[in-house]
TrEMBL record:
This is RINT1 protein. Transmembrane segments: none annotated. Signal peptide: none annotated. The gene is Rint1. GO terms for biological process: endoplasmic reticulum to Golgi vesicle-mediated transport; regulation of ER to Golgi vesicle-mediated transport; retrograde vesicle-mediated transport, Golgi to endoplasmic reticulum. It comes from Mionectes macconnelli. GO terms for cellular component: Dsl1/NZR complex.
């Protein structure tokens, strides 16, 4: 259960290793009889169906082990990325995202995603470099003087989007968007709490850093507004 990468990688190897044979030997036979099938894609589809069976059997066994469940989700997302980008798998075919979208698994994924995001926010705001810009010494890069915590937070949101963007239904994606909105509001509250501690020194380093953070986050969210 702790090594889903073993069978996921094995399947990717089988697909890659058989591609030339299927294209050179099997596809001409299909073409000759007028079949619309693509030999390579059908081979991939059959192997993915095996993976779906395996996942359906494994997921109930690790649903409540955060570490194993997170590892499985990470490996499945890596597998899906390579399947589509390297091997040309079709979005209309069955995929692992359908298994991750099933109710019990999906709710667990959301819960774990939120838990680890909040832990990340705790660590980024307690860091000694939280209010310092990574690019403070490079003037032409650092016009907005973005503190490290704000940049790390927006990267966190971007990573979450990248993880859920291939979910098969809009309703599931919207639930993840709801999680991101919660995280933005949580970050806003945390900034407000820090700001209240700094009101006596409103021209101080940290107070200005908070204002820069808010400006940066608002600007990036506005840029993302066109992303359906």
């Amino acid at each position: 259960l702790n090594k889903p990468e073993w069978y996921l990688t094995q399947v990717l190897m089988w697909i890659g290793n058989h591609a030339k044979f299927l294209d050179d030997k099997i596809q001409p036979i299909l073409d000759k009889v007028g079949s619309p099938l693509n030999a390579g894609l059908e081979f991939s589809r059959a192997l993915v169906m095996l993976i779906l069976e395996k996942l359906a059997a494994d997921i109930p066994c690790l649903l409540y082990d955060d570490t194993l469940f997170c590892h499985l989700v990470d490996e499945v997302l890596l597998f899906e990325r390579e399947l589509y980008s390297v091997h040309g798998y079709l979005s209309s075919f069955p995929s692992c995202m359908h298994i991750l979208s099933e109710e019990s698994c999906f709710q667990r994924w959301l819960t774990v995603e939120k838990k680890f995001a909040l832990q990340k926010m705790d660590s980024m705001l307690s860091s000694e470099a939280a209010w310092i810009s990574q690019y403070k010494d490079i003037t032409d890069v650092d016009e907005m003087k973005v503190p490290d915590c704000a940049e790390t937070f927006m990267t966190l949101l971007l990573v979450i989007t990248d993880r859920y963007k291939n979910l098969p239904t809009a309703s599931r994606k919207l639930q993840f968007l709801g999680l991101q909105k919660e995280l933005v509001d949580d970050f806003r509250i945390r900034l407000t709490q820090v700001m209240k501690e700094e009101t006596r020194a409103s021209l101080g380093f940290r107070y200005c850093a908070i204002l820069n953070a808010v400006n940066y986050i608002a600007t990036v969210l506005a840029d993302w507004a066109d992303n359906v």
